[in-house]
Amino acid sequence: MTNEPITKADIEKKLAEIGGEVDEQVANTRQMAITAGAVVLAIVIAGVFMLGRRRGRKMATIVEIRRV
Asked: Is pTM, for the whole model, over 0.70?
């Protein structure tokens, strides 16, 4: 360590360095969150579609016509 006094410029330089690292991590995390959200949304939509399809089949009336 040196015995030089810490200046305002030193502090600003270090804060800018730390801020850059934090911004990079936030960007990476945000991208992962968006991807995960899209996957979850696709699974939910597929599930709702399948449940609606099943209910539609159960509620549908089947009419059978036979010739004599």
From this structure: no
